[in-house]
Amino acid sequence: MNDNLLDARDLSVSFHTDDGVFQAVDHVSLQVKSGEIVGLVGESGCGKSVTSLSILRLIPSPPGKIDAGQIFFKGHDLLKLGFDELRQIRGKSISMIFQEPLSALSPLLRIGQQLVETLRLHNDISPKEAWALAEKWLEKVRIPDAKERMFAYPFQLSGGMQQRVMIAMAMMLEPDLIIADEPTTALDVTIQARIFSLIKEMRQEKTSILLITHDMGVIWEMCDRVVVMYASRIAEEASKDDIFANPAHPYTQGLLNSIPKLTVAAESGRLEAIPGQVPSPYNYPSGCHFRDRCPHAFDQCAREIPPLIKVGEGHRAACWIADTFN
């Protein structure tokens, strides 16, 4: 088909709630190549996590529903696989670091039991070997007193330690793809640096990463390519260098301008901010979803949905005037 490890095409996901139906993901397409780190960035509520959960068909149904699209992994459409086939892929070929580790870890099993169970489910390995390997991975993610922590229950660990257990669980099977949803939010900067170093080591072994974050600093440090989402749609996609040097969508420009800088004008002392708020998913504006907050909006923005326009090699933006920014 192509050289993409993951190829999600025209994915749409909706939620049916007591308040009505809203589109969480609206015709999103994204690709991840082997050994590539792709950043999926945007404000809270833009659809990043829903997109990632859809890849492994973890959307709770009801109320969620994958309305349309295809998700190819190694040439196979994950949306057409049976449960047993999908179960073999989850964890072994595609791992996920969830945003809320406590809800992803069983409160009834000790940390060591959960790690060993994951290892033995996908590998022909003895309990003793699995225990030693699990302990080694806790040490890799800087869990202090790893030998003792293997006997702890999740609630006995801090939020940061729970997150590191999830990271170890996702990495220890050496999957082809890791989906990391805000993997270091609960960690201090020194531990973050260690985790990012581990992620880069995994990339060198041809593991691909889909890194979901709202932190543009993390994007700059970690990613090869960036996909920017806003209000259920892709606003822009390009290489990391192009995104930072030549942002072609007003929303991306706003995200970059809001990053704290050492050169902020002394007379103002204030950071730039994107005006307004992310619209409710029950009441998105017609046409371009960003138009109510955009300083460049004009009549066509309200009438028509802007397609992703090519503005450079591998660089596309969903804005009618994207080519005027470069």
Describe the structure using short key phrases.
326 residues, alpha/beta, four-stranded antiparallel β-sheet, eight-stranded mixed β-sheet, 32% helix
Placed side by side, the strands forming the largest sheet appear as 6-7-8-3-9-10-12-11
**Based on DSSP secondary structure assignment, what is the total number of beta strands?**
12
List unreliable stretches of 5+ residues: none
Q: Kindly name the structural category.
A: alpha/beta
| Beginning-to-end CA distance, first to last residue | 32 Å
Oligomer: single chain
Give the percentage of residues in beta strands: 15-25%
Percent range of helical residues: 25-40%
Overall pLDDT score: 89
User: What's the alpha carbon Rg, rounded to whole Å?
Assistant: 21 Å
- How would you sum up the major sheet? 8 strands, mixed
Number of helices: 12
Task: Indicate the overall shape.
Answer: globular
Order of helices and strands: EEEHEEHEHHHHHEHEHEEHHHEE
Gist?
The chain is α/β, with parallel strands linked by helices and 326 residues long.
Please describe what this structure looks like.
- The protein is 32% helix and 25% strand.
- The protein has 326 residues and is of the alpha/beta class.
- Helix 4 (111-122) packs across helix 5 (127-140) and helix 5 crosses helix 7 (159-171).
Q: Topology of this structure?
A:
Elements: E1 4-17, E2 20-33, E3 37-41, H1 48-55, E4 64-73, E5 76-77, H2 83-89, E6 94-97, H3 101-104, H4 111-122, H5 127-140, H6 146-149, H7 159-171, E7 177-181, H8 189-204, E8 208-213, H9 216-222, E9 225-230, E10 233-239, H10 240-245, H11 250-257, H12 299-303, E11 309-312, E12 315-317
Parallel strand pairs: 3-8, 3-9, 6-7, 7-8
Antiparallel strand pairs: 1-2, 1-4, 4-5, 9-10, 10-12, 11-12
Helix pairs in contact: 4-5, 5-7
